[in-house]
Specification:
- With about 200 residues, the chain is mainly alpha-helical.
- It has a two-stranded antiparallel sheet.
- The radius of gyration is 18 Å and the shape is globular.
Length: about 200
């Protein structure tokens, strides 16, 4: 099975058939898809200017989509390297029990679904790398009351998400499943209460 870098080379290779280049970009999302496969694909297509069902997109646009994905992946891989180093130091210092950020991180290792969007058509509009930088900054500071990506303050608890965890606070503005560790207990309570109000 080809790795991310091998697939990226195929996307860039003008000697490859255009269908293979498009297919290789889709396969890259099996390795790294911050919003989930379908939502990340929709995001890349809209940002690069070709349709999700376009079977013969402009090669320049394909490469632009790949470059956005690669930049975001480098941001995430740097975070994972720092995370691993921090955990190693904590274990050395005797802190064996991981915290809530560590529990969340274990579910998103490799970058799949770190900013999960259950509805593939609703996702942040900013570049993936910027979204990940905002998310990482939120993971490294005290919990807050709103979405770390778009600063939206309306979160609603959703069940039956096609993700693990299968329930949690979803931002009604940008559509991401907000990681629980970045929210205060009060914000989580409000998200649950908002769900009850909507279903009443």
């Amino acid at each position: 099975m080809a790795g991310f870098r091998s697939l990226a080379r195929q996307v860039r290779d003008p000697g490859c058939d255009l269908a293979l280049r498009r297919y290789s970009l889709r396969k890259c999302l099996e390795k790294f898809a911050p919003y989930g496969h379908r939502a990340t694909w929709d995001h890349l297509c809209s940002r690069a200017g070709f349709g999700p069902e376009d079977r013969s997109p402009d090669p320049v646009r394909l490469v632009a989509a790949l470059e956005e994905l690669e930049e975001a992946r480098s941001v995430w891989l740097a975070y994972e390297t720092d995370f691993t180093e921090r955990r190693r130091k904590e274990k050395h210092d005797g802190l064996r029990r991981p915290g809530s950020v560590d529990d969340w991180h274990r579910l998103t290792w490799g970058g799949f679904g770190v900013a999960w969007c259950d509805d593939p058509r609703i996702h942040p509009g900013e570049a993936l790398a910027e979204v990940l930088r905002r998310l990482i900054a939120a993971l490294e500071r005290e919990p807050g009351s709103g979405c770390p990506v778009c600063e939206g303050d309306r979160l609603i608890w959703r069940y039956g998400l096609d993700h693990e965890p299968s329930s949690g606070p979803v931002c009604t503005e940008c559509g991401i499943l907000v990681p629980r560790p970045v929210l205060t207990a009060r914000a989580l309570e409000y998200a649950r209460r908002e769900r009850l109000l909507m279903s009443a």
